[in-house]
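Illustration 12: Carbohydrate ABC transporter substrate-binding protein, CUT1 family.
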Amino acid sequence: MFRKQMLATLAALMTSTAATADETEVTVWSWFVQSTMEKPIAAFEEKYPDIKVKYTYYNYSPEYITALKAAAASDSLPDVIGLQPGSLTQQYREHLTSVNDMAAAEWGADWADNIFPVNRRQVLMGNPEGDEGYYIVPQESQVLCIWYNRKIFDTLGLSAPQTYDDLKAAATALTEGGYIPMFQGAADGWQNENVFLMLANQFSAGITDKAQAGEVPWTSPGLVSAMNAWKGLFDDGIFQQGALGAHAYPTGAQLLAQGKVGMMALGSWWMQESKFPPPLSEYVENMDGFDFFYMPPVPGSTQPSPPVGGIDIGYGLTKNGAENESAWTFLTELTNGVGLQQALNDLNDLPAFKGHEPQGEVSDHVKQMYARFMEDLPNAENQRFAIPAIAEALDNALAGVAAGELNAEDALASVQAATDKALGQ
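Figure caption equivalent — predicted structure in token form:
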């Protein structure tokens, strides 16, 4: 009897070991919300039961950036990594695999035509001349905007600002009412860049693209006006006191969701708050209390900010991941398959590929906002920077001007110097 039990136990162990050996694991790192990523992974593993996905979530700044740098230095990057186009992708390009041939085999030779125009431009941003490699597959798109709390605005007798005077008046009323006027996480370079791009494109659509390509100087009048307008948002009390030490995530976004902030520069991705489970959804259920507008004309401008955006997040196949066939399978489903659909159902953001939309329960108000974003996405101006050194120089310039340590002209001259060096001019 004992011998039979031993044999049965051994057989079960061998069967379990064999099953484990047949399974493959895909490792993924990103700042993509944990609760949302679990749904694409579940859908993927249901479709591919022999593939298991191990996901590691990081807050984007500074945890994710720090983790990527350390892993790249030790050649221990996971199979798939979340990326923004341009400077972040270029920092890790030597560790990534061009997916052109794999994507063409998966989706057809014209697969890139199904990506929204601004996304197609961004995928190749920063590649060396002659390099047409796609090192990032976009998953989601975004459009930048100013979110505002409709309930607070109604209580104070305010409406979405149409002019800069409206914006200042709203900020004053919010502050006097005990609210944070417009929360700016000015300790985060990415949020400062986003606001500056809103401002710069008021003066000349696409001007920052031309400046980073060396086609117009960073010290041109439009960009100087945009930098002065950036300083004005601090001086005129539109941004909150202490903005230079504040972070957009988690601090600002949480305060906005809790009804303590009147306005905040974020983007279409913030619709996802309506899908978070309790208690996170307590303040943002169906997003009925929130809406968005584009930055009204600032001093010197005659038009509001155009839509600015592009790829919210994409994913790269690392050279480590290229040795794991299952990694590419997961990446395709995450960006343009069952995984993407689950993310869209969570309203995580807008699709990067045409032909997708959220399914399931979505309130009429969110549907209306979603439709407005999707209408603007095909015409969005580029949000990204191709060369890390230029983005870093602009971050430093924005911080210096905000702190009163630099004037607009000198700050932009430093960005021009960094651009000249990066372009070899």
